[in-house]
């Protein structure tokens, strides 16, 4: 019996997701139609431990929208009773988080090393940044733009044919640790760039005339934590004086209306804005790099998931961006291009009204630095799997997103400033 228990324990520990097991946990989607519904969910959030998937926190719930949250096994009966008593319409998106978590590794290509159609852990991605740069010296160079809270090097890949005074597009992935499809896309983008350069005229032209700065994972510490301890982790892993809670939301930590709206000043919250703007070494490194390269960077793209949206400034305020009409037209054309491959529908618009107000985001900050084309992508899906999108969806998701990024890049080339 003891031997059996040891075996089971070893098997569990060696699974992809160590730590939290999520057995019997569910993800609910609740329709919110009136103020009473909002109050019911606030009450639930006070009395049970809800993990908000969409929106990012209980304070961001809007009328006439849906709210997705994960519920601990022991709270499910309570949550269902409260929803029923108050006549809230809801559905169960995920019936057992643990099962979906196990099936996300559903790609049959089970190579042990790096794969573009698998979720790669940080160690594998780190080795890949070195390898892809070494194998493509005429197209890729690797640099380090800073170190994470836990002391890891933040690698940046510069992708493009060498040339004088080239304009550039900056793209980052992996802000929020649990949004695994995001780093997968940055890797896919680099691979497609080198694979199609010299073979496909559009990519060849883009890389001849533009440089792409690709940051494969911004929040490396958090990403590692999702692989080792808690798949549902979102924030960085920093600690700050005065609290025992860990982590800051990197996308609430930029100096753009910092912490004024849609962000929390409580270190224990998932949308904690940090003790100050750029308090996180990761966000500071990104901001420093962009400030140092402002003359060449013409577009800023940040890749998140989920909900299939393309957002542009502003999120920290309901005011419209100065070139709002242009951004709207560009977003409209881009999502049309994205949908052309697999029919995947995206919504688009200014962040504050399209998703919800949230201050301290990197897209708003980059825009206010003078980068006219600044977009946040929320990749697949719309909630069927949420953050647990299976590996078998990586290819289609990345293929369609690739079309969107190339479309924007081409537009930027035609509208240099
Ligand atoms: Zn995100």
From TrEMBL:
Major localisation: secreted
EC primary class: hydrolase
InterPro entries: CARBOXYPEPT_ZN_1, CARBOXYPEPT_ZN_2, CPB_M14_CPD, M14A-like_propep, M14A_act_pep, Peptidase_M14
Annotated catalysed reactions: Preferential release of a C-terminal lysine or arginine amino acid
Ranges where the Peptidase M14 domain occurs: 118-412
EC number assigned by the record: 3.4.17.2
A Gene Ontology molecular function term of the record: zinc ion binding
Gene3D superfamilies registered for this protein in UniProt: Metallocarboxypeptidase-like (3.30.70.340), Zn peptidases (3.40.630.10)
Keywords: Carboxypeptidase, Cytoplasmic vesicle, Disulfide bond, Hydrolase, Metal-binding, Metalloprotease, Protease, Secreted, Signal, Zinc, Zymogen
Cellular location(s): Secreted; Zymogen granule lumen
Co-factor requirement: Zn(2+)
Protein family (similarity comment): Belongs to the peptidase M14 family.
PANTHER family listed in its UniProt record: CARBOXYPEPTIDASE B, PROTEASE FAMILY M14 CARBOXYPEPTIDASE A,B
Protein name in UniProt: Carboxypeptidase B
Species of the source: Carlito syrichta
